[in-house]
Amino acid sequence: MPTWQQLRDVKLDEYSDAADGWGKVSSRANSDKDRVDNGMFAKIHHSQKGEAATKAGGDIQQLSRNYQYLHTECGLIRTALNGLATELAAPQKKLKQALEDAENLRFTVKPDGSVEYPTDSLVLSPGTHTAEHGAPVPLAPGKGEGVGSADANKGKAEDIAERIGDAVREADEIDSRYAAALRRLKADPGLEVSAEDLVDAAADTKALQQAAGKYADDDRIPHGKSATENADWWNGLSQEQRDEYATLYPASVGALDGIPSSVRDDANRMVFAENRAQIQTDLNKPAPNQYIPNPNGNYPAAVLSPEYKQWQKEQERLKEQLKGSDSIQARFDATGKENLPEAYLLGYDKEGIGRAIIANGNPDTADHTAVYVPGTKTNLNNFDEDISRMTDMWRETQKWAPGESVSTITWFGYEAPQSVVTDATQKDYAYDGSPKLLQFMDGLETAQGGPDNSHTTIIGHSYGSTVVGDASNKGDLAADDIVAVGSPGMLTGRAEDLDVGKDHVWSEAATSDVVPAGGKLAGLGGYTWGVETWNGVPFNAGYVQTVPSDELFGAHRMDVDTSGHTDYWTRDSESLRNQAKVVAGQYDKVNED
Amino acid sequence: MNPTNHRTRTRGAALGVLLLCLTTLATGCSMNDTGGADDLGYTPTTLDVEKARTRTKEISSEIFDMIGLPKGKTTPGGAGASTCQEDPEHLFMIRHPWSVYDVSEEELKQGFERLRQALPAKGWKVVSYGPNNSKAKSLELLAESEKEHFAVNAELWVGSTDPKKKNLIGVTVASGCFRAPEGTDLKGLY
What we know:
heterodimer, A: alpha/beta, Rossmann fold, 3-stranded antiparallel β-sheet, 15 helices, B: alpha+beta, 2 domains, elongated
């Protein structure tokens, strides 16, 4: 319990100055971590091979983890000290006011906080008395015990004693809260940050979120607001406030569409690293007792204990989660390999089928941006290909756009259906997912500084294109071009009805692709009045369902099969090349039907 | 072929393969996507990933030399490895896309012609050459190596006066599928 003297004398700006110091260390650790993640890995790939590369890579990962830990923990210390200083200001002020009042009334405040006062009465004999806080509540200062015969000073003294007591109590509560949080933030000497340490860091963050609730509240972070509102909020914060929110509430900050990509990346990587450490730590938990005597007879003599079965199930679940984590980590580790650009983790969630949004190259400053929306069965447990599709796209696009910067993004930001159902519920996934896509695209546009700053292409694969179609129907999709690959339908009858305008819609020409037919069965196409043609030959007319590969839909139908024949120049290569030309804005160069 | 019949036939046959196809991650799948490595039409050679990558870049270098524009700038993107759909746990391929730019249109045209002429002597069969199906009708060539499992695709882009949309010769050297050596983990391949 602090004394009132301590509360009076504490220099709060010493705490905030110390906080600044910790903040600088935290920021510095963050920059260093970026250098490790983006620079050093690249250098390894250039100079080391084989086992040397693996060992060096492992060392670099350890270094990255050390910096991550420093960034988080020092950031938490900064926030704890700032919170302490800020919250103590109020009771300190109250105390000082009470002390000033006592001085003006010529009362003496005793070391124990009680207040000595001279009698001020017409009827009582003169003397000094002591009022303590906690005395029977004075009705009003100076009006304690009857008019006239009252000691006018008694009430006043009691009031002052009460205010002193309150201030000290308030300070004590604040002090205990922050002391508890700070006590956690101690490191062993010679620390090599292990997975367990990062798990601790996550717990420390949670603890400080509780303790610093009044100082830095999650509620102050916008939730469910537009990208512009998010950006406005962020722009209104001081740099220190930004650091604090990002360190204390990394998941909330990482999800904010509209704020700079590097900020989201830092915050999401914090959550990702802590999460990864949690999975690894949990996987290391030893198995419980494996066998128990068979309770149901002698054969078999022993059976698996229920605890063991539970542990097994848990291990299976964790291994699945680890796969997703591994995929993302593998992308991080590949930065710089063959000039692969920096990765920005713009979204991450491990729950359920997971979510991940990964950009190759910073979209905020890109001349050309591509956003890929994957389709049915997308799942974080099997995510390598969804990432590499966009790294391949990055490489192909930059070839067509020399001197310009390119960013390609894998957007797994919606609940993708995990199986095909051919009834109406299939559309629900698009209905639910499209607002998130709209918001994300708005966020990109805001972070880029406006609609004209980057030429943006959305590439919807399979069911992903249905989400894109619905997004276009629901709102104003912030994109310049839409590519639909293997589309079962876009819930839109004609290309011209999509937000980008007819000339900016691209699909792949149908070959023996069954997806479009299946899509129509599920009702994922759109309806329009028109004449259906095949290679220009009409075969049907009326109010018909169309999908993007139909001629009637009116999109540019890009070639998928080459004019020449070779085993090594595959349909995939041709498809990638055409899509990349659209991403690069080189429309007249696309091979189309 | 009667378009109506085709549509009915597609729809009828589709249902059986529909569920299989729609649940794959393929860019779009055809009714032929039922085989594995057998579908390739050739037997993949076993080769270490980094060796394949190095070989691909060597070929890129040879192509660059055939074009003969040493003063031209080249884009920085490197050679990427990715798994082959036919057997993603064992098969991989390398793709190296790059372009030559910042030389005059005339030089680009000459460079492209030099490439076309030099390829056969270096063991490449030019499978197709001519204006392609784009609005710009760019000259495009596709060549396949007679000795190794590699293909080269090149396009000539000229006629742009927009400084942001550069004239260039765009090349992609793409390997066929290789089999990774026993025990190689192809997850997280870039």
